[in-house]
Amino acid sequence: MAVDALDAKILGLLLEQPRTSVREYARMLGVARGTVQARLDRLERDGVITAYGPRLSPAALGHPVLAFVHIEVTQGHLEEVAGALAEVPQILEAYSTTGGGDLLARVAARDAAHLEDVIQRLVSLPGVVRTRTEVALRERVPHRMLPLVETVGGGPAPAG
């Protein structure tokens, strides 16, 4: 599904001002409210917009330690291990990867000892061969989508 310039402007507004109404987006863009709503509906249906909701801070929730855990899995057990990872609340997300491990998980922990406990839980999962952990020291580029949206829509999103 191609994202055109109007779609990109709508997505940009949605990212920059997520609590604004569809009516206000339409006013800002100079198009009908129905046009914006129809575009949002299509972007949702086509899987461009995958969720709505606040981004939460693991640190503010008492889990300031962030780590990336590479997990090597016994052949044939990837789905089983991935399913087990989904049961560990400290795993924020996980991806199957190429390279040194089979899975890469982003993990939040209360402190170093808690991180060790989480890693020990992962190592004990059937199908996990070994793990390798890298602790994040400082976020250098926060999660963002706006620069990417600006490149696919044919120009920058409106400033406001």
Keywords summarizing the entry:
160 residues, alpha+beta, 6 helices, 38% helix
What's this model, at a glance?
With 160 residues, the protein is of the alpha+beta class. The protein has 6 helices and 4 strands. It has a 4-stranded antiparallel sheet.
Task: Walk me through the structure.
The chain is an alpha+beta fold and 160 residues long. The protein is 38% helix and 19% strand. The protein has 6 helices and 4 strands; from the N terminus they run αααβαββαβα. The chain has helices at residues 5-16, 22-29, 33-45, 78-85, 112-123, 146-152, and strands spanning 65-73, 91-96, 103-109, 128-135. It has a 4-stranded antiparallel sheet with strand order 2-3-1-4. β2 and β3 form a beta hairpin. α1 runs antiparallel to α6 (146-152). The chain is elongated. The model has no long low-confidence stretch (mean pLDDT 94).
SSE layout and pairings?
Blueprint (H helix, E strand, L loop, with lengths): L4 H12 L5 H8 L3 H13 L19 E9 L4 H8 L5 E6 L6 E7 L2 H12 L4 E8 L10 H7 L8
Helices and strands, in order, run as HHHEHEEHEH
The end-to-end span amounts to 26 Å
Instruction: Report the strand count.
Output: 4
Biggest sheet details: 4 strands, antiparallel
Structural class: alpha+beta
Roughly what fraction of the amino acids lie in strands? 15-25%
